[in-house]
Specification:
metal-binding, Cyt_P450_sf, about 525 residues, mainly alpha, Cytochrome p450, 10 strands, three-stranded mixed sheet
């Protein structure tokens, strides 16, 4: 009975599925398996060959393993994965370059391709939608902005014309420090205010006077410091663009809060200058400061690339944030390194005493006679470049660099900090030795030699090199010539760094000045 039932079931099954259909199903399965094997095992890999890099997690890639000190973290990775490596940052691809030859391909050989920016959400929030020199895409608008800045604000002729302004602010700082002889002075904070006063005087004729210096200097420095920190902070919105509208880390909200404080100042200055402009036109007077020049240029207009109010405010933001923090931090590093290396301080003071004398004050006319001081600046920028990873570049199309494909839209970090400490390039790379720049005149700030390029290279090289050089050399010469410096008791001197888009000293340099000039009247 059971046998009969099984026999019937088998007969029914065979009748339900004809042999041709079974054969068809069998052949389909074989075809599917063959296709699967071809796709996943035998088909040639047509994906672009990107640089090697550390393995990452699904979805997040390498995001969760990032170290806050990105410049040193990237340098460590390069020792494992080579001079060009890939990091998967969520939906973004990060490319890290850590050798002069690869940097040359990015910044020189393919300069036009890499002249764009992958604008972070914080950058857009800080600069009115990314309409400034730093973040605007390479093209007519960027060329217009750079031309306005370089020719009017940062040209040698303009800088020569405002020497009295720089001198007044530096002498004011010396007088302030002289009034606090024997007491600790926060060098970075006071140099920040000095540079800020120079910049705001050039922009709209404003500076901070009297007892307001310390309070306003600390307040402004906090604002600028927070802005630059937010610009360098890893942000989920940048790595997962689909989440940007939610601002999950609150970076954009915080950036708006800090920049609003500067924006209110800009609005006030623009309103005052528009009023002053009307009065000047009635009286037949020309522009007196950079802001008036910008507003005049905006009114005249250019049909192809007009200068707008947004551009004006973005340029003001660039000058105030970009000019003040970078210069004062570099001066602070230089003073710390010289105090840490007394023989360097001694050589710098001997050079100044020989050229200037101890019965005189430093003038900018002395600067070109101080080669050792210039070497101090170059060595400071070698060890502590103001922007350790520069401002990240972004290829406008896929490009081959170092034998690898760099996909369009990647965020490219050039680790100038690591290159300038590379022991295969530099003798005793971690030592602060300005004399290395005395014997060979090839080291300059032009970006032509990719072993040393603290201000960047190519089309996007820093526009403010001339101003930075003048402020640094004149300020440091005056501080070193006017005072001897020592640390307060029980405080150690270190030059440890804190990473951000702008490199800072981890601990503020607080030191005690002692007058060294022959006549107290020289400090007035």
């Amino acid at each position: 009975m059971d046998s009969a039932i099984h026999s019937n079931d088998s007969t029914i099954a065979n009748k339900d599925i004809p042999t041709p259909l079974l054969l068809l199903l069998f052949l389909s399965a074989i075809s599917l398996l063959t296709w699967y094997a071809w796709v996943f095992f035998f088909r040639p890999n047509t994906k672009p060959k990107v640089p090697p890099g550390p393995p990452g997690l699904p979805l997040f890639g390498n995001l969760l393993s990032l170290d806050p000190q990105l410049h040193t973290y990237f340098a460590d990775l390069s020792r494992t994965y080579g001079p060009i490596l890939t990091l998967r940052l969520g939906r973004k691809l990060g490319i890290v370059v850590t050798s002069p030859s690869i940097a040359r391909q990015v910044l020189k050989d393919h300069d036009a391709t890499f002249a764009n920016r992958d604008v972070p959400a914080a950058g857009r929030a800080a600069t009115y939608g990314g309409r400034d020199i730093a973040w605007t895409p390479y093209g007519a608008e960027w060329r217009m902005l750079r031309k306005v800045c370089v020719l009017k604000m940062l040209s040698n002729a303009t800088l020569d014309s405002v020497y009295d302004l720089r001198r007044r602010e530096v002498r004011k700082t010396v007088g302030y420090m002289y009034g606090r002889v024997g007491a600790p002075v926060d060098i970075g904070e006071h140099m920040f205010l000095t540079v800020l006063n120079v910049i705001t005087n050039m922009l709209w004729g404003g500076s901070v006077e009297g007892e307001e210096r310390a309070r306003v200097g600390a307040e402004f420095r906090e604002v600028v410091s927070r802005i630059t920190e937010l610009l360098g902070k890893p942000n989920v919105s940048d790595f997962f663009p689909g989440l940007a509208r939610f601002d999950l880390q609150g970076v954009v909200k915080e950036m708006h809060a800090w920049t609003a404080r500067l924006d209110r100042i800009f609005d006030k200055m623009i309103e005052e200058r528009l009023k002053k402009k009307s009065e000047s036109e009635r009286e037949g007077e020309g522009s007196k400061d950079f802001l008036q020049f910008l507003l005049k240029l905006k009114d005249e207009g250019d049909s192809k690339t007009p200068l707008t109010t947004t551009h004006v405010k973005s340029l003001l933001m660039d000058m105030v944030v970009g000019g003040s923090d970078t210069s004062s931090n570099t001066i602070e590093f230089a003073m710390a390194e010289m105090m840490r290396n007394p023989e360097v301080m001694k050589k710098a003071q001997e050079e100044l005493d020989s050229v200037v004398g101890i019965d005189n004050v430093v003038e900018e006319s002395h600067i070109h006679k101080l080669p050792y001081l210039l070497a101090v600046m170059k060595e400071t920028l070698r060890l502590h470049p103001a922007l350790p990873l520069l401002v990240p570049h972004c290829p406008s199309e896929s490009c081959t660099v170092g034998g690898y494909t760099i996909p369009e839209g990647s965020r490219v970090f050039v680790n100038v900090w690591a290159i300038q400490r590379d022991p295969t390039i530099w003798d005793r790379p971690l030592e602060f030795d300005p004399s290395r720049f005395l014997d060979d005149g090839k080291w300059d700030y032009s970006g032509s030699d990719l072993n040393y390029f603290p201000f960047g290279s190519g089309r996007r090289i820093c526009a403010g090199i001339a101003m930075a050089e003048r402020m640094f050399l004149y300020s440091v010469a005056t501080l070193v010539h006017s005072f001897d410096w020592k640390m307060p008791q029980e405080q150690e001197l270190d030059v440890s760094e804190k990473f951000g888009i702008v490199l800072k000293k981890k601990n503020p340099l607080v030191a005690i000045p002692t007058p060294r000039l022959s006549n107290p009247a020289l400090y007035d």
